[in-house]
Amino acid sequence: MRQGRREASVQPADVKRWWMLSCLVCLLVAAQSSAGELHPTPWWVDFLGQQSVLDDQPLPVGAVVQAYDPTGVLAGRAEVTVGGSYLMPVYGDDSTTESDEGAESQDFITFTVDDYPVVPTGPDSPVWPGPGSRAHVELRASSLAGDFDCDCQVTVADLMRQTERFGVSRGEAGYYPPFDRDGDDDIDVHDVQQVAGKWRTACQE
Q1: How far apart are CA 13 and CA 17, in angstroms?
Q2: Which class is domain 36-143?
Q3: Would you state the pLDDT for residue 5?
Q4: Please, which pLDDT band fits residue 28 given cuts at 50, 70 and 90?
Q5: How large is the average pLDDT for residues 99-114?
Q6: How many CA atoms lie within 13 A of 25 on its CB side?
């Protein structure tokens, strides 16, 4: 005698588990997508440079300059349209929201060029002075992996710069994306090992 097919019943506990899992996935996807997103606000400072360089050559047209607040939040992005020059609004945090959109007054701003590390060379200090201001900050960038002080070689000085931020994660004070060599949102032993592996390498003449 053939038995009838048993219908699977959906229990309330199963629905609750599915709903919680869906919410968790959505939160993870949102966190990943927002990590590198720029969120413009009504408050910004114009940062600019006219003699900025990548590997001792004027910034190439098409290069992308990015600015970060002290916790690694992307606060500004601009594409170079005139060699050696950039003009970039760096946005401030919106205090009416819970999220961190950018800088606050007197925050130290860090930069990258095409995701390479940058050393600001003045004449103005790379701080966010307050909405409506302008800061003249020239940039010196290096495409040599591990060259954080942009002097065209990887030395103990570069390792010291990185290890000073050891254990810092994205969203914490001191996070700087170029130090996070494997891009996993924290600066750990794997990142230091990658830089140590470039020990004593130098730019090609």
Answers
A1: 6
A2: mainly beta
A3: 43
A4: very low
A5: 95
A6: 6
